[in-house]
């Protein structure tokens, strides 16, 4: 039996793809521990993994880090450095006691990368979104990313101090975001990654890792027979957009669609006015179940939502809320899987025309069906676990290094 320790950040887009992987490892007789905040306890325990809590506030990009025109890399790296400095002292002693054979960590949780270095444990990197390849970083908002020199210098000093305190060689600030391990599990198909063909065998593109959520609320679709379903969601983070949801009410209240809308938990529904008769709205919905009954999905373009939509063969209308999602909208348009809209150019007519086009275009439908097969043929969580167990078998931990 091999021992695996997962380290992740408290963000659904990073946790959800890992749940089926943890479950499959347990099903194959492996021991799995999972370090995360208590909000995710039920989801982790449902996989059969041993839940090990740490304390951390909800993870959100700092003010000014993510803007429509680009990314302030130094602000994001600073956030990752602060979370690592918070998580590491909470998990290191428990990892020493546990003595896992392998650490599996999300790329937004560099505490996992640093813990593996400190304890000399083989590590695997998880990427629920794009690999920061040269081609990806040359595109759109990433090409306009900013990293002010003074801020990067300050980050380097903080990293030097953190690494010295744990007796490991210092790393560059960009390494806490772009570092690659000998094995990197990517939860998208290679065809969706910009420059995917240029990435070597260290990167295993397994596509979406579908696992029915244990915390999903019960939901019953209430539509007329034969009526198509339009699903609308801006995800779980940047969804406090009463202007957007009010516009959706106006655009589709008298359209021949049954509209299912997830509006998040921070929205004041009174600000939207009466809910149209052909709408079903809720703060949170069982997205996997809804997508199986959906004809068109208006989404923020989060990678989980995008991959789940393609897994179920649903064309997309992407309304990005941040730069990475803008790249996803670009990929959706390039690959003919739907279209992308700019938030500041939305109107009732723009939304109506986008839905009409995406729902009726035979080329989009054919492209989505082809990508659905590509996504499903990637192997998902089973392919991920095959790669993980093969890695662990060929990279044994030195049992003397954790003392």
Automatic annotation (TrEMBL):
Organism: Dictyobacter formicarum
Erythromycin biosynthesis protein CIII-like C-terminal domain span: 270-373
Cited SUPFAM superfamilies: UDP-Glycosyltransferase/glycogen phosphorylase (SSF53756)
Gene this chain is encoded by: yjiC_2
The protein's name in its UniProt record: UDP-glucosyltransferase YjiC
Keywords noted in UniProt: Transferase
Residues passing through the membrane, by range: none
Superkingdom field: Bacteria
Family stated for the protein in its record: Belongs to the UDP-glycosyltransferase family.
Keyword Kinase among record annotations: no
């Amino acid at each position: 039996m091999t021992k695996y320790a997962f380290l992740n950040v408290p963000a659904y887009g990073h946790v959800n793809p890992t749940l089926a992987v943890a479950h499959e490892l347990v099903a194959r007789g492996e021991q799995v521990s999972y370090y995360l905040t208590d909000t995710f306890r039920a989801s982790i325990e449902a996989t059969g993994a041993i839940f090990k809590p740490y304390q951390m506030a909800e993870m959100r990009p700092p003010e000014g880090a993510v803007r429509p025109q680009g990314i302030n890399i130094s602000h994001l790296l600073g956030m990752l450095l602060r979370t690592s400095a918070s998580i590491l002292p909470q998990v290191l002693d428990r990892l020493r006691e546990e003595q896992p054979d392998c650490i599996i960590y999300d790329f937004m949780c560099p505490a996992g990368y640093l813990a593996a270095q400190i304890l000399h444990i083989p590590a695997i990197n998880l990427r629920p979104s794009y690999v920061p390849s040269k081609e990806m970083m040359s595109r759109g908002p990433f090409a306009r990313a900013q990293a002010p020199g003074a801020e990067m210098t300050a980050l380097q000093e903080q990293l030097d101090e953190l690494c010295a305190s744990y007796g490991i060689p210092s790393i560059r600030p960009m390494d806490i975001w772009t570092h690659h391990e000998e094995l990197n599990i990517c939860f998208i198909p290679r065809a969706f990654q910009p420059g995917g063909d240029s990435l070597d065998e260290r990167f295993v593109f397994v596509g979406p890792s579908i696992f029915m959520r244990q915390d999903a609320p019960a939901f019953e679709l209430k539509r007329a027979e034969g009526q198509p379903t339009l699903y609308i969601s801006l995800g779980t983070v940047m969804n406090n957009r009463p202007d957007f949801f009010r516009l959706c009410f106006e655009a589709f209240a008298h359209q021949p669609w049954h509209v299912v809308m997830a509006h998040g938990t921070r929205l004041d529904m009174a600000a939207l006015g009466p809910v149209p008769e052909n709408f079903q709205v809720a703060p949170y919905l069982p997205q996997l179940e809804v997508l199986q009954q959906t004809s068109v999905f208006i989404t923020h373009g989060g990678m989980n939502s995008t991959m789940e939509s393609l897994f179920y063969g649903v064309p997309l209308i992407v309304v990005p809320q941040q730069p990475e999602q803008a790249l996803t909208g670009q990929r959706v348009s390039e690959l003919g899987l739907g279209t992308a809209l700019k938030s500041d150019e939305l109107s009732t007519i723009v939304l109506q025309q986008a839905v009409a086009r995406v729902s009726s275009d035979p080329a989009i439908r054919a492209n989505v069906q082809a990508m659905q097969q590509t996504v499903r043929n990637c192997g998902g969580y089973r392919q991920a676990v095959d790669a993980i167990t093969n890695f662990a078998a060929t990279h044994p931990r030195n049992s003397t290094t954790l003392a």
